[in-house]
Amino acid sequence: MKKTLLATLLAAAFIAPAMAQTPAPAEAAPAAAETSPHTLTGNLGIFSSYRFRGIDQTAGKPALQGGIDYAHESGLYVGNWNSNVNSGAGYAEGNLEMDFYGGYKHAFGDFGIDVGGYYYYYPGSSANPLSYSNRKNIFSTSSGAVDNFELYIAGSWKFISLKYSYALTDYFSLPDSKGASYLDLTANYDLGDGWGINGHVGHLFSSNYKYAFTTGSDSIAYTDWKIGVTKDFSGWVVGASYVDTNANGSCSKAEFYCFTNSLNKNGATGSNSKDAGRGIAVVSVSKTF
Question: Which of 174, 215, 274, 277 is least enclosed by beta carbons within 10 angstroms?
Answer without folding.
Answer: 215
